[in-house]
Amino acid sequence: MSPKSAVDATNNNALNTESSAVCVIIGHSIEAITSAVVLASLDHTVHLYADLRVLEQQVELYGFERHLQALWQLYGQQQQIVKCALPTSADELIRSYESADSQSQEQTKPLQVNCYWLFLESIKSVWTDDNWVMAFNHSHQQTIPIIISGIEKLGHIAKVAERLQRAWVYYVPFVFLQDGEAYSSMLTPSLWLLGEKTPDSSHQLTVLQPLLQHARAYHHADIATIEFARSSIMAMLATRVSFMNELSRLADSQQVDIGQVSAIMGLDARVGSSYLQAGWGFGGHTLPTELDKLQQSAQENSVTMPLLQSVLHINDDQKELIFRKFWQHFDGFIDNKTVMIWGGSYKSGSGRTTGSAIHPLLALLWSYNIKTLVYSDKAKSSLAKHYGQQPLLQLLDSPYQQMEAAQAIFIISLSPQHQLDIARLNQQAMPIFDAQNALSRAQIDKLVGAYVGIGRAK
After folding, report:
1. 190, CA 20 to 30 Å: which among 2, 356, 374, 450?
2. DSSP structure class, residue 208
3. Tens of pLDDT along 346-355?
4. Is 85 helix (H, G, I), strand (E, B) or coil?
């Protein structure tokens, strides 16, 4: 079978599913995959269009999302989620459903599309905004809701929505999605924001009503306002992280535990406890992307944002702080040592290493010819792909494997479920450099060897 025939066969299978109502999702991101699984769990049939090769890579990358993976495979086998090759033209995709609708009407079983859901970051390399907007404007299915998701410069999605010649256009930012708990965080979202082109029209989004109803908090507004709110929320979270990291340096000089200070601050209802933990900073995809888009928006509108620039500077510098503490502890005599590193992902529970402090740490350690023994159960495959055959890197299957060969331990992203064996650590009595402030005060007090955290004196 030729490649084109294979693609045609895949798309024909999508249009021949038993259900007469489908949700069409276009994208390969974790947000698109999670949306497909959640909608399938709500008894919808989903046709997911994407670059199938990239889609499979993305599914593999998120192997740590075990619940999501299991449901993805189950719904795929049951044809409740049908994977389809993304056509080079949006017009081709839309025509296929209009054609199927026309044919099925003759068979008295019309094929109904409940919604089109586009994930802009996934499709922009294939479809331009002009391409898919024009295709939908030429469509005969003008009453079908269009949902847009993605991180763009402020106002971009609102402008796209205005160009769409239909009333039911919506914007859903994924401010609620949590790495490691993608499925559950979308099924019962902490905060659901909905941007509407037409005011007070959320009732038209029947497929999303269960999610709106189960959200702990929900707010709808015009799309431009929701875009601004999304970006503002993420910038505030990043600012809190960088502020606490800046305070941690002062706490070091005062021999004060920043962890205790954070707990006290959290008691004040005006402050709250979220994102007050000092550490190596923030990484991942969402926060850095949001801040980058926010900066671009400010520059295009000739607005200076010195606070945002400081947040980014502090975050970049913070990722190297634990190495400087390591260098100072050994008075600079660190060449040719062997160290252990626990965790590699950008946050506990995730298997992604995008923006993680492990990357600058490894680069600095290797510049001194230091051998690195890394244990990271969720991020092991990601690190293996990223660094290939690096001779100074060895990926371990156990956190205590080859411990006797190391002269120090770094902690980057230790899972809260990980039970530290303090007695085993004390057998080696090596210094621990905790970039995550993962150890409790009780654990620190039991250590024989030195402990160096972020704003935490032993």
Report:
1. 356
2. G
3. 988 888 999 9
4. strand
CA neighbor of 169 nearest in space, from 205, 209, 208, 197: 197
Q: Token pair 């506990």 is at which residue?
A: 348
Q: Are 287 and 234 in contact (CB under 8 A)?
A: yes
Mean pLDDT of the chain: 91
What is the rounded CA–CA span in Å between residue 392 and residue 382?
17
Indicate the residue type of 397: D
What is the Cα–Cα distance from 394 to 399, expressed in whole angstroms?
12
Residue in 37, 32, 28 with CA at minimum distance from that of residue 67: 37
For residue 226, which of 195, 192, 190 has the smallest C-alpha distance?
Answer: 195
Whose tokens are 């702080």? That residue is: 321
Strands 169-171 and 192-196: antiparallel
Q: Which residues pair with 306 in a beta bridge?
A: none
Q: Which two tokens stand for residue 295?
A: 């900066």
Nearest 10 degrees: CA dihedral of 77, 82, 87, 92? 140
Give pLDDT tens digits for 164-217: 999 999 999 999 999 889 999 999 999 999 999 999 999 999 999 999 999 999
Q: Which of 356, 358, 396, 361 is nearest to 377 (CA)?
A: 396
pTM of the model: 0.89
Q: Can you give the length of the chain in residues?
A: 458
User: Using alpha carbons only, what angle is made at residue 104 by residues 26 and 50, rounded to the nearest 5 degrees?
Assistant: 15
Q: Give 263's Cβ-side CA count (13 Å radius).
A: 7
Q: Give the tokens for residue 288.
A: 């850095």
CA 251 to CA 264: how far, in whole Å? 14
